Amino acid sequence: MLVLCLDGILFPLIAFGFSPEIIAIVLGGLNGKLLAASSFALPLLLFIAIKHQSFVNYLEAEDVRWRLLFTTSNQLMKELSAKDYGLEQAATVFENASEGLAIVNAQGLLLQANDTFCEMLKLNKALLNQQTYMINTLFQHNGLQLHHAQILSAHWRGEVTFGERYRHQGLLAVNRVKSEQQQAQSYVFSLVNIDEQKSVQRRLNHLARHDQLTQLPNRRVLDEQLAALDKTATTLLVIDLDHFKDVNDSFGHAAGDEVLQAVSTRLLIIQNAHSEHIGILSRTGGDEFALLIKSYDVDLSKQLIHEIQQQLKKVILISGNNEIYISATIGASLQKVGEQRNLLQEADAALYEAKRTQRGSYGFYEDRLTQESQRKLSLSAKLKLALENQDLLVYYQPQYCAKNGQVRGVEALARWHDEDLGWVSPGEFIPVAEATGIIDRLGDYVLEKACNDAASWLKQGLPPITMSVNVSAHQLRFGQFIQRLSECLNRSQLPQHLLELELTESVFIERENEAIPLLKQIKQLGVNLAIDDFGTGYSSLSYLSKIPWDTLKIDRSFISQIPDDQEQCQLTATIIKMAHNLNLNVVVEGVETQAQLDFVSQRGSQIIQGFYYSPAIEKDQLEALLAAQSSA
């Protein structure tokens, strides 16, 4: 460009000489200006025409900053001042961030780090520029040293271990720094310590496989052990406590828990005495235990049954110096080498057959229809008829605000009274509904009844409350639940935000890709979601972040020993804190004492559900309760 400009001025002077007339023509007067402009323009136009693509590439290059041609020095000073302020802000955030931040070059060398990063990795910040720290020596990933080549990319994120002997766990994020200048690449490392979250996860995993009250392996562990049997000689004993419900009804659930703990201790004594024969001892239900024996030996089984029954007949002394006498009925199932039997089902059948004959006895499975099978068939037929005739009842257990003691919501619970069988426990008829495939109809029945009742309360002028309804995993598996839910809301005219669906963690086990989109569709309808019995099932923390939950319900097993059990206190407080960090409401179930209420309320639980306030009650009783509350 400079050559073209000089050529446009000097050419006339060289060609025609440096006479006053030529100088006046070239440098002065209108004609001179026109001649000079033409001298500039013609060569430039020729260059653009011949080297068009080169000219376009030049104009589009980073080095051509057209904005600077129109920027005054005052504007430049303002922009520079703003950039300096932005740099100061960035430096302040960098130094005072709660997470560890560091800058690393392309070779993996640590260039700069904030105080948090240095403290987490025990680095001396004052000597940071004098010592060489390679990033691959500071972290491990999957048990191996973290090689900088695998993570220094546009973006990397993963779990790492760090610190002394790599005993701390953290979440590390690496991002490449973008720059318009041609500078050497650098990377920002962001490190968050997740030791506490991992500790909670381990505890929850333990709870998922162990009974909270007795610390024995639970039904899930027993199922795994039974599934792993490969046609080996095995015996399974199922132990059921007789009339245990009477203990709870007479002395309360706390006394019942003491009895269960005493029973588990006595069974452990027997297990330890026969450790060479017994595989595992587990608690499989409320008052039911199972003993897996690693042999096919009828005489040994009878010996163990006798010892168990003798141990359990001994008096149990509970709080208040009350003496409890208890017995057990035992069912046994045996598998020979080469056989593949359903030991649990057969032992249950033997148990219920023995109960029918005489409580406190025992029975071995025989290949015939047992009383339990007959009862299940009878329950199935009667339950179908009850659904068709709409004979099932829906009770409501109030949920109270921890701050003011007012009813904030209710949980809808199915209840069944049969003319021949009397009151049938949900723990008995719901598994029958699941096994016979009518759980969908039962779930729809409760949902429809609950929505209609809640809408009717609004029409009566009663205060709006949240209606919580349980949804089983089976209801979500065939793609029709969303439509049925929408139709139910339209028919009842219940505002969507007043309905909350409760789901247990079994909904997601091995079905994450299918379940999560369905739950997001439910949220799009405006319905709230609650995770029920948190910590008693699969308990993966990832579900808390992947699904838009509104409420987390803490199972009563977590608070049954509060405030005396320090481990329960710490775990419950941690779960409540974690829920608040995720902006979830917290409902604590099974609150029965003032001490339990005070503990969970002081830790920030917003909603209380349990016998301390009220059991599940009929619709008319709840309406009276809401009316009294409204007029108070």
How would you explain this protein's 3D organization?
The protein has 632 residues and is α/β, with parallel strands linked by helices. The protein contains 22 helices and 23 strands. The strands form 4 sheets. It has an 8-stranded mixed β-barrel with strand order 15-16-18-19-20-21-22-23, surrounded by 5 helices. A hairpin with a 4-residue loop joins strand 9 (278-283) and strand 10. The longest helix has 24 residues, at 73-96. The protein is elongated, with a radius of gyration of 38 Å. It starts with a helix and ends with a helix. The mean pLDDT is 84.
Structure characteristics:
elongated; seven-stranded antiparallel sheet; 23 strands; 632 residues; 46% helix; eight-stranded mixed beta barrel; single chain
Short description, anyone?
With 632 residues, this protein is an alpha/beta fold.
What is the overall number of helices?
A: 22
Total strand count, please? 23
Given helix and strand content, the structural type is alpha/beta
Low-confidence stretches: none
Say what oligomer this is.
Answer: single chain
Query: Taking strands numbered 1, 2, ... along the chain, how are they ordered across the largest sheet?
Result: 15-16-18-19-20-21-22-23
Mean pLDDT: 84
Q: Please tell me what the overall shape is.
A: elongated
Strand content: 15-25%
**Ends distance:** 90 Å
The Cα radius of gyration reads: 38 Å
* Largest sheet composition: 8 strands, mixed, barrel
Query: What is the share of helical residues?
Result: 40-55%
